[in-house]
Amino acid sequence: MHPRLTTDLAELPSLLEATRLQAAEMLGRLDEQPVVPPLRAPAPEPLPEEGAGLAATLAEFARTWAPLFSASAGPRYLGFVTGGVTPAALAGDWLTAAADQNPASALDGAAPELERRTIAWLRDLFGLGAAHEGTFVSGATMSNTVGLAIAREWLGQRAGVSVAEEGAAALGRVTVLSGSPHSSIAKGLSMLGLGRTALIPVPTVQGREAVDPVALERALTQVEGPCVVVANAGTVNTVDYDDLRAITALRERHDFWLHVDAAFGGFAALSPDHADLVAGLDAADSICIDLHKWLNVPYDSAVQFTRHQDLQVRVFQNAAAYLGPLGETPDHVHLTPENSRRLRALAAWFTLRAYGRDGHREIVERNIACACALGQAIKTIPGLRLLAPVRLNVVCFTLAEDPTAERLADLAAALAEEAFLTPTTYAGVPALRAAFSNWRTTQIDVHRITEALKGSLDRLS
Questions:
Q1: Which pTM does this prediction carry?
Q2: Are 216 and 174 in contact (CB under 8 A)?
Q3: What is the CA radius of gyration of the chain?
């Protein structure tokens, strides 16, 4: 064994303790460090011929790179829709790396069974019935893509072809209808050979991002050939929801696959006051839910649900002698594009076991309350304008005068050390969006963000 490896193995307990202390120090300064610090990266270096060993590497990381990382795990990182990591999820993730399990095959330990049981908990958490089978994927983009891949096979089956065997050309042109689709839908269609132009926008309800059910039915009557409807349970800008029950009712008259993108909006199911927003979710053929958003587990972790796991296996099955037979309960290697991956389920299992439904409900409801408080505060700040009602956990706002993309970027930059917000465009107006999904965030943080907004506006004026 290499001498550096020999030394690190012999000293591993103390080195892991040093790593724990460094991690605790990083987490301990989240409340006060700049949310997005100025980037002053160290000069590039060639690959070292002789390594420094873990102790020296820990010290170098703490000195050079750790101070440059954003506080994305902290309470005022409101960009994108980024959750933090609950204490239990952090512990689960550390043990994931230590155990280094590959849950793809049932030939190797209990990891696949732990994943199935975690999926069952998640199915219950989101109010889904037993007909929905699930599997872990890397994020919302892969979850949406897997759902669309299963849809593609379903459409082929109805046309008398197997796309998995014969290719997308055998299916012909597919139409995908959606009101306010996430960008990952077009990306998934591109990867699946269906093409970005397959995505046809459908008019939304006036003043909202929710699809107009009347316009959707009109579009369905004009479709010739295979069709997928992508419904949204929580849009990016305003967390608007399509009427899932109305869309489901359209299947009585029209033949289409229903995929629901509920990446973070699906968590409305946890709150009794908001659960009606996802009424009808269980009727979907496939569902995307992103766990490293509001479940507050580490990147990368999402779940993909479907009622048609037999078709999922047809798309993703892998044939190799070392994998063993397919069997009645398919191994995870047959369910997603990945043949091997880390045990993503363990962090989710830890946080669900540690805090249960009630703990995660509290996180969701507290985040919603924080978003509502910021929305109310923005209404009182001269120079800012709320662009849409705060329906759940996202606040979409802009400058009251001359809201150009450049001025909004300047405002975001002025805020960056105190709070991180991402740019967007809503109804043609450049804007900023604050997405609350971190388990640490409280009303104290809302007050700090509000004061930072006021100060930043003063500096820009």
A1: 0.96
A2: no
A3: 24
